[in-house]
Write a structure and sequence with these properties.
Length: 510
């Protein structure tokens, strides 16, 4: 479970923001027309000249976008794949319309269609009046040439594999199943397996921009989606419109450095959960923060040898409980559910923890999953990254991270979650490096001080790497903010999307 960058839709809070400044978008349509003309004469011409055929579906309408399977061979004889795109049209007049707002929910491996529908129904009317809200399943995900690396039964087995191995036998089993997953991608989805990397997705995004009829891309990316936005600004700097990057990923970090940062972030979050628990009448461990931490550690330690009963399904194992804890840290709105689950666990019932773990993995039956996220996440994440260390290196990182962690099992699981990337069959040629873009467009970055999955330090770092960016800080809990968590954040982002007005430098929503 660890190292997940998936986003939960933002929800509640009330804060205030300092005043703002306005910046115009850079560039001109004449330049864009020249760039488009160049593409139309290239091997990508058949993709850049396609027209989308919209049909009613879901909350709005849907279409298929054709893109090259392999961007190194995109010509007339190259194989194509289709990506599923959704659109909720702007509610205002044609004269009011500013274009399309392409959204990505994070992940990698999370579908974008439901998320776009959600945003279209919940964002400020001024935003949905001016923009078509466009979502898409990235390649390898959902309806877009989905990758399958495991059967339902194998997925369940993987999610129940001991994620904190403490014997050579347990370590060997974890690594063997990780390799089986990697091999499964090649046998079950051989065509797409080597073509799900984020750089290919970024190039897909530019073809989609052209098909939508926009000279520049306006983009709202959460979590992993901020990495897509950053790479787009590097590859297509002159086509950057208004970009909102919420829950920023630092592209200079390799997979182990990122996991180390996330490990610290989740430890901070569990500490804040514990402190909050002491103020609640339903806290399973009354008293102080240390009592709560000790109680959590006791449950996780006991589960390492003794699974908990769950009526109507298989018993809860430690790896599932760890997944539940990680998942609940994504939003304080889930903390009450975690308190309830811990109370049940103390009575010998694993039902509450099992429910949270099932939500995290999209599990809807014993061997049935609503999405292909369990396959798509490692397929994309491992391809994007240089190989993580072999078994001995993961074990050493697990020991090092856990020695300084209030809840050691979470830290150990964070290191071992990278086991698939240690044995993956291939990796991108793009190495981790600071963002390098000469875009002139202003970019808005949002960072949460207590974000567990994308630590605030990452937002600060990305802000330093992108010269035209502005950092807006949220002093609160949870992963990502825009879209209902904080009126302060929402007002600032709405002003930027609608008017191009950025918040004042150093602005903090308290």
């Amino acid at each position: 479970m660890a190292a997940v960058l998936a986003v939960l839709p933002a929800m509640t809070a009330t804060l205030a923001l300092a005043g703002g400044a306005s910046l115009a978008l850079a560039g001109g349509s004449a330049f864009m027309s020249a760039a488009a003309a160049e593409e139309q004469a290239s091997p990508l011409a058949r993709y850049y000249t396609q027209q989308l055929t919209w049909q009613p579906c879901r909350a709005g309408e849907c279409a298929w976008l054709s893109v090259p399977l392999d961007y190194t061979e995109p010509g007339a004889t190259g194989e194509s794949i289709r990506l599923r795109v959704s659109r909720n049209q702007a509610k205002g007049s044609t004269a009011d319309r500013l274009g399309s707002l392409l959204v990505n929910p994070g992940g990698p491996g999370v579908g974008g269609l439901d998320f776009a529908d959600y945003l279209a129904a919940t964002l400020a009317p001024e935003v949905t009046r001016r923009y078509d809200i466009v979502g898409f399943d990235t390649r390898g995900v959902g309806q877009s040439a989905p990758i399958t690396c495991m059967s339902g039964a194998q997925t369940t087995r993987w999610l129940r594999t001991d994620s904190t191995p403490d014997t050579p036998r347990e370590e060997a089993l974890l690594m063997r199943r990780a390799r089986s997953m990697a091999n499964g991608c090649l046998t079950r989805s051989p065509a797409i397996a080597r073509h799900v990397g984020s750089d290919d997705t970024v190039r897909d995004m530019d073809i989609l921009r052209q098909a939508l009829g926009d000279d520049r891309l306006t983009f709202l990316g959460y979590s992993y989606g901020t990495y897509l936005g950053t790479r787009y600004a590097e590859i297509f700097p002159e086509r950057v419109g208004r970009f909102v990057l919420d829950g920023a990923v630092d592209p200079s970090l390799d997979i182990m450095q990122a996991s180390d940062g996330q490990s610290s972030g989740f430890q901070q979050a569990i500490g804040r959960f514990a402190q909050d628990c002491t103020r609640r009448g339903d806290c399973p461990w009354p008293g102080n923060r240390s009592n709560v931490i000790r109680g959590i550690n006791r449950i996780l330690a006991d589960l390492d040898t003794t699974p908990l009963t769950v009526p109507g399904r298989s018993r809860l194992v430690q790896s599932e409980a760890i997944t539940a804890v990680f998942y609940a840290m994504y939003s304080p709105t889930l903390w009450s559910s975690l308190r309830s689950a811990f109370r049940e666990a103390r009575r010998g019932d694993g039902s509450g923890l099992a429910s949270l773990a099932d939500l995290a993995s999209d599990r809807v039956g014993p061997q049935l999953y609503a999405t292909n996220m369990a396959s798509a996440f490692p397929a994309i994440a491992c391809w994007d990254s240089p190989a993580s260390p072999p078994r001995a290196g993961l074990a050493e990182a697990a020991r090092a991270w856990s020695t300084r962690a209030p809840v050691p099992e979470l830290a150990r699981a964070m290191s071992w979650s990278n086991a698939p990337c240690s044995v993956w069959f291939g990796h991108s040629t793009v190495s981790p490096a600071p963002a390098d873009s000469d875009t002139k467009a202003p970019i808005l970055i949002i960072g949460g001080l207590y974000d567990p999955a994308t630590p605030y330090a990452w937002a600060k770092s990305l802000n330093e790497q992108l010269p035209t960016s502005m950092l807006l800080t949220y002093r609160g809990d949870g992963h990502t903010v825009y879209g209902g968590t904080s009126p302060c954040i929402d007002n600032a982002v709405d002003a930027y999307l609608v008017n191009g007005t950025l918040p004042q430098a150093g602005a903090v929503c308290r």
